[in-house]
Structures are given as C-alpha cells and as structure tokens.
Amino acid sequence: MQFGMLRVKELTGGYGAAPVVRSVSFEVEAGTMLGILGPNGSGKSTLLKMMSGLLQADSGTVEIGGRSIAEYSRKAFARQVAVLPQLQADTFSQTAYQTVTLGRYPHQTGLFAGWSDADERAVQKAMDRMGVTEYRDTEIEFMSGGERQRVFVAQALAQEAPVLLLDEPTNHLDIAHQQQLLDTVRRQATENGLTVVSVFHDVNLASLYCDRLLLMDRGEVAAIGTPDEVVDERKMERVYAARVRAGMHPEVPKPQITLLPAKEPEDRQEVIRKADFSVSREYVHLNSRIPMMAVSSAVFGAGAGWYRHFVNRNVGADYSTDDAGTEMRDWLYETGFPLTQTVAMMTAAMTEDAVIGEYGPPDAPIVVCVTAGVGNAVDASLGTDRDAYAGTINTWVIVNGHLPEEALIQGMITATEAKAKAMQTEHVLDPLTGTVATGTSTDSLLIAATQRGNRYPYAGTATELGKAIGRGVFECTAEAIRRYRNRKADFERESR
Ligand SMILES: Nc1ncnc2c1ncn2[C@@H]1O[C@H](COP(=O)(O)OP(=O)(O)OP(=O)(O)O)[C@@H](O)[C@H]1O
C-alpha cells in the first residue's frame, strides 16, 4: 500500500448504543484530496473523529499506509496524521508562534529532545503559508476567529504528516483566506503528495478543490465519486432537501450549485387532465387551477409566460379581420377571460372535433389537444408562392412536469416532427403542388408545463417526455385529420 494512502473499511460508530456513522467505506489515494459533504448532523465530524483516533469506532477499520490506526502509538500516529482542530482549548493563553510549535510535538524524540533547525523551519514555513507570521507574538485569545483558524491550520501543516484531516477548515475565513488556505493545501497534495480529507459545508468549494467527494446522508454514504458525479442537482436536492441549480464554474470544468429561493409548497394533487378541457362549438378551453409556463405561437399571448387559460376559438371559414390580435383580445375580454392569464389561438376547423389524449405517465400525463383543418395544406419543403389562405392545425402539449426552456423548445421540435409525420401517414396533399403536405399555412403550437412534479431536462425524441409528445401529437393529429375529412364528407353528402 502507498505511503499516505488511507483506507476506511465498514466504519461504524457514534456516542451511544445507536451508531451515528454506519458502515462507511472508502479509499483516498496518496496525494489526492477527498471532500466530505452532507447536511448538518449527517455524521461528517463523527467520521473524521473516528479517522483521527479521537473517537473509538464500534466496528470497522481505518488504515493509513497499510496499517490499522489502532496499531500506532499516539506519537507515531501524529507523525502520520495531522488533524484540525487540535489542542485548541489549551492554546488560548499562548502566542500564535507557540501554538504552531505544538505541531512539532510528534517529531520530538528521545529523552532530552531539543528544538531543531528542522522544527523551526517547518514552523516558519507553515506560518508563512497561512499568512500568520505577522501575528507571531500575538496571543491567540486576542485574534479574530479567522486569524485563529489560520494559526491552527499552520499548526497542522507544521506537523508535516503525510495525511491531513480537516474539519471545516474555511470556518470563519473570508473569501481571500479561504482561497489562500485551500490553494495551499491543494498545492501540498499535488506537489508534495499530501493526502487530504476535509469536511466541507460549502459544496462549491469542495467541488472546486477536491479530486473526489463523499456525500453523507444520515450516517451513511449517499454518493462517492468525482465532483461531476456527486455535485448533481438531484442528488444535492435529495440529500440536502434544498432547491438547487447545478452549472459549470466559469473558468474551470467543475460543477457548482446555486440555491434557488424558497417556492410556495407544491400541491402535487394539481394534475392537468383531459377532463379539465371543455369543448364546445365556440372554443376549446383549458382552465388550469395553477399557472403554467407556456411557450407558443398563439394569436394572443404568444411567446413565453405564465398562463392559466388556454383557448382555441372557432372563427368560421369566412372570418376576416385586419388585426386578428386586437379582434381576439376584444372577444376574450367580452367572453370574460382574464387577459393577462390567457393564451388564445383561432381556427376555422370545428372545435367540437378537437382530439384530446393523455400520454406518458398515467399519474401525471402529457395531455395533447389538436384541432385540424387541412383544406389549405402546404408542403413547406418547396417554398411555393401561393395566396395566403388560412388553414390551421392547432396543437397544444400540456406537460405535468418541470421543464427548463431548453426542454420547452425541444418539445416544440418533437411536436412539429410528429405533426408532419401525421400529414404523411394520412396522405394529406398540398393542393397546389400535389406533394405530401408538412402542415398548413397558419399552424400554431403551444407547449405548457405545470413546472412541478416530474423533472424533464429534455424533450427530444430520445427522452421519455419526447416519446410521449411524439406519439401523442402524431395520434391526435392523425385522428383530427380523419375527423376533419369525415365532417367534410358528411357536409358534401348533405349538400348534394
Ligand atoms: N459528543 C457527542 N455526543 C453525542 N452525540 C453527538 C456528539 N457529537 C455529535 N453527536 C450527534 O451525532 C450526530 C452527527 O453529528 P456530527 O457532528 O458528526 O454531524 P456533522 O455532519 O458533522 O454535522 P454539522 O454539519 O452540523 O457539523 C448528530 O445527531 C449529533 O447530535
């Protein structure tokens, strides 16, 4: 086993009958840094205390350089392992210099051990590294919390042990001194092969400086791996019960998290279903009890925003206006829809023929609603000049889930691809070119998400959400086209 390598096997222990740390195992390669993360009370300090020999483990072993720590004498152990905090209570009436010299105790050998040049050099170097040389003769009790912390770290560094165990080393330190301390420790690991295990409260500092991270949850290992593997939004949210967003550090490829402010407690009962849609000759209406994040190309309320009312209004084949937006606004107002909370589309197709279906997870489905009038179908690939006739397929995709903007946009792509495929399968032709149409001239699309419950980071066709949207839009569009054609055939029969 490598000098300085640390191996923890099945370590269990605590302060009474019920262990606080349960069956924790991991290894730390010499010259690397392991960060221990976890919520308050998850057992981080207890684990470190057992590794430091300050607390007897109930079972399991800690090996350093291939030897169990139980086999080391107190002094021999201190030559192998430096621990912070250490001897803090005793050192308050001492100067910074005297405190740091205590780090040399394990190197004092023989009956008449003296203070050597090597001891003095180690102390000076450690004090310089921690920037506390100027406080050499200041008594610890007259120093600030951060200054004291740096003195204690200097003491641990002066010990020149191959393994350094730190409990919250950046406690009390301002950002410049956090950086100085962690840069120093990091350099000792990389350049001098120091093995470091450190408890962190700050996930971002741990991610930035450590090679590997150990995430504790209620006394057990919730995750161990590289920062990329451990600093994961979902793992963080689950273990810390905090809302976070994970992203990359701007200069180094290490993940960092940002806290998201508290949200109103979610009522997970609020699921939008097919039954929430009302369909009449005049319009299709979805009245959502909660605001949904919607992105659409609607006539009214287009773009992105939070909305509760979704309207697809029948305007009849002879509808004509110079300003559809204003006309729609007036109609919505007169009909009693709250304008700031409403997105509205229009169609000449019969809204009674709207096809509504539920797809994906039954407890939180993806609800698709399509109306199709394909009299003026268009093959978009040809770019043919033509008179602008309204012909409209209006598509809504309602997701019971949480979607970032990226997924909302991917959902629109997936829905558009599925619509084009439905046109092909139903063999809808562009009357001008005779080729298979891809849509109609004034199609509109809306995708809305409740932004609660299931998280869907993406909505491309490779994802479960993309599959539900693709299948849903395809099936509903194909059925809407068939209903349109049946109605048209009935109408032609009647008028003959
Ligand atoms: N000396 C002690 N005697 C009895 N119980 C203790 C003692 N120290 C800690 N505990 C208990 O052990 C559990 C784990 O504490 P520990 O200090 O290891 O957690 P931690 O993860 O370091 O927490 P924090 O982030 O708050 O520092 C806690 O429930 C705590 O109350």
TrEMBL record:
Keywords: ATP-binding, Nucleotide-binding, Translocase, Transport. GO terms for molecular function: ATP binding; ATP hydrolysis activity. Residues 6-243 form the ABC transporter domain. InterPro entries: AAA+_ATPase, ABC_transporter-like_ATP-bd, ABC_transporter-like_CS, AdoCbi_amidolase, P-loop_NTPase. Gene3D superfamilies: P-loop containing nucleotide triphosphate hydrolases. Pfam families: ABC_tran, CbiZ. This is Iron complex transport system ATP-binding protein.
